[in-house]
């Protein structure tokens, strides 16, 4: 499953444009007073402005599975990586066979670089913004993640992530290429103490050749 396009909200187009174009080095596809779109590997990340918006999103970028240490070094003078425990910034997801690091953008959104070893997508080039492969996760907040997951299965033919222990508190739909991470409202976003909130999100997904538009 591929997350081809994600549209979320920012309260400040100017500072968001600066962060994603200058700090993360993503190419701008479109930019006006009301929205800005960036190329993030094979995905498009779009922000629309609402000056009254006061909440955060969580989303992740897939990076080559052998480049996490280089990504950490690359982040050093750009963003502050979130510590998982003591001095360690690397999260280890054994069941998913993946490792990740987390940081915030200018909006307070929780971002993640994740290296998924089962994708076997090693690269030899030095890590840079061009190493970002795609948007691999977007967080969706709902009162019953399991119920929403089953609805997506029935209505759109999507499947639960088979590496995840899906429950009424936390569920994932998709695969290593792209995941909808569904969590119950007010559940803290790992690895922070920031509670999740339901925010408007528009997603374009490609799955088994079919393209679908979802609104949350």
TrEMBL record:
Residues 2-112 form the Glyoxalase/fosfomycin resistance/dioxygenase domain. InterPro entries: Glyas_Bleomycin-R_OHBP_Dase (IPR029068), Glyas_Fos-R_dOase_dom (IPR004360). It comes from the Bacteria. Coiled coil: none annotated. Signal peptide: none annotated. This is Catechol-2,3-dioxygenase.
């Amino acid at each position: 499953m591929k997350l081809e396009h994600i549209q979320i909200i920012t309260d400040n187009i100017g500072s968001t444009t600066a962060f994603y174009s200058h700090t993360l080095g993503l190419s701008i596809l479109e930019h006006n007073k009301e929205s800005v779109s960036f190329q993030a590997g094979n995905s498009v990340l779009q922000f629309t402005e609402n000056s009254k918006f006061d909440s955060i999103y969580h989303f992740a970028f897939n990076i080559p599975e052998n480049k996490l240490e280089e990504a950490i070094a690359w982040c050093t003078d750009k963003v502050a990586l979130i510590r998982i425990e003591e001095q360690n910034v690397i999260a280890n997801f054994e069941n998913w066979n993946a490792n990740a690091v987390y940081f915030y953008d200018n909006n307070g959104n929780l971002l993640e670089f994740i290296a998924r070893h089962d994708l076997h997508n090693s690269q030899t080039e030095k890590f840079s913004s061009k190493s970002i492969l795609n948007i691999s996760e977007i967080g969706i907040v709902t009162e019953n993640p399991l119920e929403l997951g089953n609805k997506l299965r029935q209505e759109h033919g999507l499947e639960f992530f088979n590496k995840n222990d899906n429950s009424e508190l936390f569920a994932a739909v998709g695969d290593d290429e792209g995941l909808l991470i569904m969590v119950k409202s007010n559940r803290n976003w790992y690895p922070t103490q920031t509670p999740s909130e339901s925010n408007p999100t528009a997603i374009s997904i490609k799955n088994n050749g079919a393209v679908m538009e979802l609104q949350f």
